[in-house]
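Record type: monomer structure entry
Structure origin: computed from sequence
Chain ID: A
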Amino acid sequence: MNSESQMGNKVSLFKKIRGKVRYGLTLQGIRYLLTRIGIEFSPYYLFQEGINVIKMPEIKGMDTDYSCELLKSEDMKEIGAINYAGFSEEKLLAFLKAGEQCLGIKHNNEIVAFMWINFNELNYKSTIIHLKDNEAYLWFMYTRDSYRGKNLAPYLRFKSYEMLKQMGRDKLYSVSDYFNSPAVIFKKKLNAQKLKLILFVQLFDKVRHTYTLKSNYSAM
């Protein structure tokens, strides 16, 4: 690897950590550094969404020239260019080919927020759920920096509930990292129900353990 590539990797790493700290994810940033040396310590919540459906949120501070729609293959180039999660255009196209769907909001023909929906399985860390015909897994929601604070994420989530209900999908799962406070608070605003708190531990690709720290929240 040449010096320019190494410098590029360092800048990319710095941007990711800076982004996490900027949005109140300091612990996330520290854990990200640990994963770079082969140590992963990941507590996370398994949620069920769409149970007590929220009222449709209002988009704030944005004119009416926007749409909420399923994104197509030609939109993946634009999403891939964002590169926030490290997914290339080819990888995003592979998601679509595998049957996943991407619901997004466009403003003035620019994609400003999006989320992915998997109809086949939930596969996160050590949790794997093969989904039934009435189930779906909601994952990776993203809003462009310049559009944060406009209520796009809850609006998009509400629209996904509507769409999935029409498809007969009424049991919706999602996952949030325990240390990702903004995401956990977001799920609370959606009236999402915590199903489990799970801890995943991995050391240098050799030792992998999974522990259910808490379950059956509804009974408490």
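Annotation 1: The chain has one domain: 44-195+212-219.
Annotation 2: The longest helix spans residues 3-22.
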